[in-house]
Each structure stands twice: as structure tokens, then as C-alpha cells.
Design brief:
The structure holds two protein chains of two kinds. Chain A contains 14 helices and no strands. By secondary structure, chain A is mostly helical. Chain A is globular and about 70 Å long. The model of chain A has no long low-confidence stretch (mean pLDDT about 85). Chain B is mostly helical. The model of chain B has no long low-confidence stretch (mean pLDDT about 80). Classes of the chains: A mainly alpha, B mainly alpha.
């Protein structure tokens, strides 16, 4: 029980820090890709830039638009931050290193992920601006559409693990990572995770040319900062989920076959560093894609979600279920 | 068992307090000088035209309705996916039939063009 509270404190702290670091990394990597310097003035290598950003946002004027719903307008930025932080409760960072062990944690995860839609939709609707409304509508349509392939891809992992507990899903990949057993599912999950966190190529929620700022056009000061923080927290969380479900969680490749017995402390350090390393790679992937690939049109996004990914994910689920069932029958 | 949910409540509380502290800080420390023009909704520097909450495309409602059907399907799949190896052959086949029927439904809605945003704009 004490361990779980230590993990809670550390993971909350690390999540907030890594969100700040992701903001910095995004700007540096963007600069690197575009062959310029990026922020390098505040602190060593510009590392204190996120703190300067937050200070600046706090000192700005907080404007609530006329005729907007003030209460909803204020509460909307809190929702995505809260859901992002709640997700971290069930992600295992190592063998037994999880904030809380609940037996249906995958259902909990999907439920919390769905709640994130409310923040964006309510923000767009309460602002009393046409850009915000259109941005919010697009966001809600896109996020609920991509939740389905995401859910199906996770279901195909449940087939291998035989449990709705994320720690069991992580443990089931000790020898074979799910990306090897279920490559189509992994691709679908990564695409859907990009769409769920509204990142390029699915960031038409805030397409500058058509919608100005999308759902946060009317947000300023720290309320805008909360959406900004939430976006990067979702990048971190989604990288963790990709790692957990498909890339072996805290296991090294084929670790069950060759990894010698370690003491508890050694195992803990190894687990956490492997997990953090993989998460870091996927955070880099999120940034890399943003500065490499252009943005889709809205009908292309909906078409990809409903006409391509959803049928593909259902077919993938069915084939895996049939193959596993037949293999099981032959063994008996 | 229920005590396992206490850390989740704690995390929610932490997130809420953090968000509210940050937002209050900006209210307290930032300037606050509203005027009529500043509080107008942004429309590229022009005076706002008409109401913001106009009627919008029915496609968004259709997407939401489709979502409910297939989200329920996914939820039905989870308990089966956990125990499908221990279930009888009948249970296995009936789930396959269930998925196939919904899959056919998906193909029907796609062929009807329900979810095709570009097609609806030209036909109207």
C-alpha cells in the first residue's frame, strides 16, 4: 500500500515534468528538423523555457467572451488535465510498480479516455464563437470515431492476455511482444492514438487556415495553458499506452528467454528505465510525425476512421480469435 | 477491493486542485481590464455576424449514433475476449455470428454514404 502511494507521487510528478519537457522537446526538435536553433536562451540549452512559458501565461489577461457560458467555459480546461492524470493510475511502470491494481483496468482506461471528449466539446460550445463551435464539433466527431478502432485493437490484446487487468497484459508480453503477435493491431492502435490526442496528421481541430485556433480560439491566459498542458500530457500518456499494450511494456525483447534472475532492486531499476526509454521513443515519434507529415482534410479523416480502420480492426480481431481458438483445440 | 480506488480519487483531487490553483493564479496575478470590444467573439477582426450556435450538419449526429452502436459492440466483446478459450464451441460460433452481423451493418452504412462528409455536401 505504501509502495502504491510512492508510485502515485513519483508518477504524477514525472508526468507533469515530462509534459513540460515534451513542450520543450517539440520546439527543439521542430527547430532541428527545420534547420534552425529553437529556444536556447532561458537556462542551459533553453531547458527552463517551459517555466518561462507558464510564468508568461499566468501574467496574461484572462478574457471570457461575452454571452459565453462562463461556468462551462471555466470548467472545460480542467477536464482534459484531470482525465490525463487519472489514466496514469493503472499503467504499470515495472513488475508490481503500479499506482493501483484494479481488476478491470482496461475498461477504466477506455471510460476515462472517453471523458476527455467532453473538455474539447464543451470548450467549443461555451465560447459563443463560430470557430470554436466548429472546432469542438470536429474534435468530438473525430475523437469518438477513433475510439472504436482503438477499443478493438485493445480487445485483440485482451485475447492474448486473457484478462482485463493491464498488469496482466504487460506480463503476457514477457517473451512475445504484442507488436510481433499482432502487428496490424499495433498499427491501428498507433494511428488511433494520434487521432485521440488530436496531433498531426489529425490536428484539423485547430487547423489555423480554416478555424483560427479551433476550440480554444476564445481561450487566453492559463485557461489556454491548461489545454496546452493537457495536449502534451495526452502525448505522454498515449506513448505509455502504446508501449504498454504493444511494445512489451517494461520487458526487454524476448526477456523471458534470456534475462537472468535479478534482485528486486536491480529488476525495478531495469524495468523503469526500459519503460521510460520506450515511452521517450514514442514521444519523439509523435513530434517527428508532426513536423514531417501534412494535415488531412476532415472527410479524409472520417473516411479513414470508419471505412478503413474500423473494418480492418474488426477483421483483425476475428482472425486472431479464430487462430487462437484453433491452436488451443489442436493442443487439447 | 474498493480501497484500491482510493489512489484514483486522490489523483483526481490532485488534478482538480492543480488546475484550479493555476487558473486562480492567473486571475489574481494577471491584469483584468475588460471592455466591450475585447469581449466580443473573435471573427478575424470583423464585427460578429449572426449567432454562434447555428444549426450544423446532420452528419455529426449520424456519427454520434453510429458510435453508440459500435461502442456497445466493443464493450460486449471484452468479457468474451477474456474467457473465450474456456467457453464452449457454441459460445464461440455465436460471438462470431454477432460480430459478422454488426460488420455487415457497418458495410451497409458505409455503402449508404452515411459517414461520407464530402458526398453529402455535393448531393444537397
Amino acid at each position: 500500500m505504501t509502495l502504491s502511494y510512492i508510485v502515485l507521487g513519483v508518477s504524477t510528478f514525472m508526468l507533469l515534468n515530462s509534459a513540460a519537457l515534451a513542450v520543450y522537446a517539440e520546439r527543439r526538435v521542430a527547430a532541428f528538423i527545420q534547420n534552425r536553433y529553437g529556444p536556447n536562451r532561458v537556462g542551459p540549452l533553453g531547458l527552463l523555457q517551459p517555466i518561462a512559458d507558464v510564468l508568461k501565461l499566468i501574467l496574461k489577461e484572462d478574457v471570457t467572451p461575452q454571452e459565453g457560458f462562463k461556468f462551462i467555459h471555466t470548467i472545460a480546461p480542467v477536464i482534459p488535465v484531470t482525465t490525463a492524470l487519472m489514466t496514469v493510475a493503472v499503467i504499470p511502470f515495472g513488475d508490481g510498480l503500479v499506482v493501483t491494481e484494479i481488476n478491470a483496468s482496461i475498461l477504466y482506461l477506455l471510460a476515462i479516455a472517453s471523458l476527455g471528449v467532453y473538455g474539447v466539446t464543451l470548450a467549443g460550445w461555451s465560447s459563443n464563437s463560430k470557430y470554436s463551435l466548429l472546432g469542438g464539433l470536429r474534435a468530438s466527431a473525430q475523437m469518438i470515431s477513433y475510439e472504436l478502432p482503438l477499443g478493438m485493437a485493445v480487445a485483440s490484446c485482451v485475447l492474448f492476455a486473457g484478462s482485463l487487468n493491464i498488469t496482466d497484459v504487460a506480463a503476457s508480453q514477457e517473451v512475445w511482444w504484442n507488436v510481433i503477435r499482432n502487428p496490424i493491431g499495433a498499427v491501428i492502435f498507433i494511428i488511433a492514438a494520434f487521432a485521440e490526442s488530436n496531433r498531426t496528421p489529425f490536428d484539423l481541430v485547430e487547423a489555423e487556415q480554416e478555424l483560427v485556433g479551433g476550440f480554444h480560439t476564445e481561450y487566453s491566459s492559463m485557461k489556454f495553458g491548461m489545454f496546452f498542458l493537457a495536449e502534451y500530457m495526452h502525448v505522454v500518456i498515449n506513448s505509455m499506452l502504446i508501449t504498454t499494450f504493444f511494445f512489451g511494456s517494461y520487458h526487454l525483447p524476448f526477456a523471458g528467454l534470456w534475462l537472468p534472475e535479478l534482485t528486486t532492486t536491480q529488476k525495478m531499476i531495469l524495468d523503469v528505465s526500459v519503460f521510460v526509454g520506450k515511452t521517450g521513443f514514442f514521444m519523439f515519434l509523435f513530434i517527428w510525425v508532426r513536423w514531417t507529415i501534412g494535415r488531412f482534410k476532415f472527410d479524409q479523416v472520417m473516411n479513414l476512421g470508419w471505412a478503413k480502420l474500423l473494418p480492418l480492426s474488426i477483421a483483425n480481431f476475428l482472425i486472431i480469435a479464430i487462430v487462437l481458438y484453433v491452436l488451443n483445440m489442436m493442443n487439447v | 477491493m474498493l480501497s484500491n480506488y482510493i489512489p484514483i480519487l486522490l489523483l483526481t483531487a490532485i488534478a482538480f486542485t492543480l488546475a484550479i490553483i493555476l487558473m486562480t493564479l492567473s486571475r489574481v496575478l494577471g491584469p483584468y481590464r475588460p471592455n466591450k470590444i475585447k469581449l466580443q467573439p473573435y471573427e478575424s477582426g470583423m464585427d460578429p455576424v449572426g449567432a454562434a450556435r447555428e444549426r450544423y450538419s446532420i452528419s455529426y449526429y449520424l456519427v454520434a449514433m453510429e458510435f453508440i452502436v459500435f461502442d456497445l459492440e466493443v464493450i460486449f466483446l471484452y468479457p468474451w475476449a477474456v474467457r473465450f478459450l474456456d467457453l464452449s464451441f457454441t459460445a464461440f460460433v455465436s460471438m462470431i455470428i454477432f460480430i459478422t452481423i454488426l460488420f455487415l451493418g457497418l458495410i451497409y452504412t458505409l455503402k449508404k454514404g452515411t459517414l461520407d462528409f464530402s458526398k453529402q455536401q455535393t448531393s444537397n
